Amino acid sequence: MEVSKRVAAMQFSPIRRFNTYAFEAEAKGKKVYRLNIGQPDVETPACFKEAINNYDKKVIAYAESGGVTELLDAMIDYMKMYDMHYERKDLLITDGGSEALTLIFTALLNPGEEALIAEPFYTNYRTFCNQVNGKLVPLTTKAEEGYAWAKRELIEAAITPNTKAICCISPGNPTGRVLTLDEMKLVGEIAKEHDLWIISDEVYREFAYDDREVTSFGMLEDLADRVVMVDSVSKRFSACGARIGAIISKNEEFMSGILKLAQGRLCVPTLEQIGAAALYRMDKSYYDEMKAEYCARRDAAYEELMKIPGVVCQKPGGAFYLTAKLPVDNVEDFLMFLLTEFDDNGETVMFAPAEGFYMTPGLGRDEMRIAYVLDRDKMRRGAQLIALGIEAYNKKLGK
Amino acid sequence: MEVSKRVAAMQFSPIRRFNTYAFEAEAKGKKVYRLNIGQPDVETPACFKEAINNYDKKVIAYAESGGVTELLDAMIDYMKMYDMHYERKDLLITDGGSEALTLIFTALLNPGEEALIAEPFYTNYRTFCNQVNGKLVPLTTKAEEGYAWAKRELIEAAITPNTKAICCISPGNPTGRVLTLDEMKLVGEIAKEHDLWIISDEVYREFAYDDREVTSFGMLEDLADRVVMVDSVSKRFSACGARIGAIISKNEEFMSGILKLAQGRLCVPTLEQIGAAALYRMDKSYYDEMKAEYCARRDAAYEELMKIPGVVCQKPGGAFYLTAKLPVDNVEDFLMFLLTEFDDNGETVMFAPAEGFYMTPGLGRDEMRIAYVLDRDKMRRGAQLIALGIEAYNKKLGK
Fold first, then answer.
1. Residue A20: closest C-alpha in chain B
2. Which residues pair with B95 in a beta bridge?
3. Chain B CA closest to residue A51
């Protein structure tokens, strides 16, 4: 009577598994700046809750498996903003981007088949892929190079007869790397040459800073039959707890497979879909405000971190994450120190150790990811606490 | 560039795939009594929506992966009603019973490993199990025997070295079969002898009619380490669109595996959990009212169906389904006839053909499942429409 091998081999989330120590620190009266998880402090737009509160059907009934029409149509209109044109049959609503990715791997990978992904990558991809006995193959990137990965040699060196797909997360989690449209075209060319699917996770689509344009694989029409996009309200609308996402593709065979899976689990919560439809109907100005806010948070965090001698980090271009090399021997030990020993005026800070974002053993032990999801003063203070912590930690170790 | 074999081999839901024809019939002005899907017309208790409407946090944030405390505690208290005692760590909240089952198969079955299940069974089990390349092995039952399956010979004949679990759905969908506590003990004995997990789907727990007691594998303490229960608010509280379910088990290794999977998908919607907590806090009288209502609906439907010559059906003991053999050559053809050709005073009826609930090819072609989810007058009229339809259908075929 054993559990399955796939589950026995899985890790606990490196983003969440230090929560216990943070709770303990808080119980002792410490204030913990939580930069470990992509949970913004930005208010969810009020229209989400209003739409839900106004829902007055007396029976909370199953929705259609593909999603409620109001939401599908709102998303279709939102995509038009970027000159991307979809029909209802090209979309399927999911329980967040997480379910979207699980269904995609289920629909694409036979056991043992491979999907390429630039590492460090959002760690839960491993769970989504391992669940169906698929295999992620990492394309290793470096802090020194700003985690760039869209290079022909790097990608082609990893392709085997078992390769079925390339995963693209842009703007990227955890690195904040944003693909240019030219880089997307290159990935598309390689995918065509090797007959691969492109799994494009675009949940941070609007969060591209400085002079970067919003880019999407949906803009490249010659790739339409092989592109599978993932969308979500979590980050875009600061509605992480709504768990509304979507799979978008013009490949009919693929979408038919996804619908079969979706019918199995019946549907996504009705009320949350009604709320999400209102979010997608908001004015375009909302995206500009959010982008400006997160950009300012990035700048605050980056500026402070770069004051620390020995930190290696290129300014990230998008999403709301920053991964950096720290001048400590072991970032997990350092995090434990921050949560259990260190404080500055009763305050400490928490981040996600980057090792869990790498598949290649040994990599990332001196890197951390922070999410710049708190206001800029808090981000600045958080980064300062990291600086003070590094000093205290290395002093303790006699360095 | 192909989809995965598992998805290519999957069917569309036999419960949902005739919807298109029903919509077309309705578009032509026909009234369709929809007895095909377990979507009750009973109002969701108002406390669900009230709790959600009263939620006033400004950020709809991620919940803990295992579920929000209010809901876990409400469920723990609900279980005490049946003298079953659990702690928070024994429960994990899921996106409906559907996600619960998907996670359970993922956590228990390696590719190729088997789970036994009495057929006909709730067809989506196939999707949940095939998703992770597990294999369901059917224990075939018969309409003439009231679909009884808890028999030592039947179960043991199906056990192989690859058998890992026995699935028990009681009260059962689609047959309405209810296991007695003695039958559960027998299943438990066999599970112990062959070192198997017991996956017990108890989402219809209270819907056990006549003189039947509520039974649960949670009542058998000597099985605690091998029992994995599935729960859901969908049927119990007529809240199908809420998508709140749970996995309950005292096996710590198993629950640890489930938590790893759950952390991957982050969490279940926050608002729906708040609403569900209110549902589980309702007075016990609610269950009695619901039971009386569904029992009356069953009686109405059963009484009318038994007036049809040639129908084979033992009165079902629980849940809100009834599976019966009909005096027609092919139930799917008959259903198409009902939706596209037949009407009585502008009305027709829809059920789920039972063939999709069987794994063994060829079985169930003359059986249908109805869900007695409409009020008793409608159930009576629905059954009468089936009777009139059979007459018209067989007349058309010259029988």
1. B64
2. B244
3. B53
- Minimum-distance CB partner of B110 among A5, A13, A110: A5
Task: Give the closest of A7, A113, A258 to B106, CB-based.
Answer: A7
- Crossing angle for the helix pair A376-396 and A285-305, to the nearest 10 degrees: 30
Cα–Cα distance measured from residue A376 to residue A300, given in angstroms and rounded to the nearest whole number? 6
Closest CA to A124 of B98, B66, B261: B261
How far CA A108 is from CA of A105, A124, B7, in Å, comes to: 5, 17, 8
Spatial strand order of the sheet with A321-325 comes to A321-325, A367-371, A352-353
Q: In chain B, pLDDT over 70 holds for what percent of residues?
A: 100
How far is residue A149's CA from residue A146's CA, in Å, rounded to a whole number?
Answer: 9
Any bridge partners for residue A93, and if so which?
A: A246
A63 touches B at CB < 8 Å: yes
Query: Is the Cβ of B224 closer than 8 Å to some Cβ of chain A?
Result: no
**What span, in angstroms and rounded, lies between the C-alpha atoms of A11 and B91?**
20
- Residues A332-380: tens digit of each pLDDT: 999 999 999 999 999 999 999 999 999 999 999 999 999 999 999 999 9
Q: List B231's β-bridge partners, or say none.
A: B246
A48 vs B: CB within 8 A:
yes
Please check whether residue B387 is in contact with residue B304, taking contact to mean a CB–CB distance below 8 angstroms: yes
Q: Cβ of A43 under 8 Å from any chain B Cβ?
A: yes
Lookup result for tokens 């749970």? B246
DSSP secondary structure code for residue B363 in this structure: T
CA nearest to B187, candidates B226, B232, B138: B226
Q: Angle at Cα B222 formed by Cα B216 and Cα B223, nearest 5°?
A: 55
Interface predicted TM-score (ipTM): 0.94
Q: Under a CB-based contact definition with an 8 Å cutoff, are residues A379 and A301 in contact?
A: yes
Quote the CA–CA distance of A325 and A141 in Å, as a whole number.
13
Checking if the pLDDT of B140 tops 80, the result is yes
CA-based nearest distance B8→chain A, Å: 7
